[in-house]
Here is the input.
Amino acid sequence: MGLNKVMNNDIIEKIVKTAHHIYDKDMILGKAGNISILDDSGKFIYITASGTDFKSLSYNDIIKVNINDLSYVSRCDKVPSMETSLHIGVYKNRDDVKSVVHVHSPYATAFAFSNKRLRQLEGFGEITGEYIAEVDYYPPGSKKLAKYASEALKNEDKVLLKDHGLITVGMDIDEATLLCEYVEGIAKTQYITHMLNL
Here is the structure.
């Protein structure tokens, strides 16, 4: 299948603004993390390029990818994030999801690397279980990570990737980003509570 080379600047602007917001909130470490939006046609996603620095991310760091054959348009010879297949898997499984955000925020990621489970707290919609769902460790960018993470997100809007980070989804990029902030907030609260109880 061919790829429509016309880029949607409104979508790109949303991703750029969100990336800068995430960086300003200290929710990204180095160049680890990725953001995507599914366009209105449902045929293409816009995703951050591999090795993107969110602090200086610009329009040229956003890649348009065909969800069926993975062909893509890049303005600066960059390639899509290594987690592109994970994002596409989520979109194929969830008709209600239009954005995916993956971060390595410090407190949530600390729980992902620990043997502690992260409890769900009130403050963001329905509580679906006692703990935030987790996915076992698989190497970043691997087919197994894409498969198991996208499967876990069929019934969840937020998942901790063991020894890796956090991934959230939403009906738009604002919802997915707010959910990241919520999980990071409850992780910080639970970490402080644990330290106070020592």
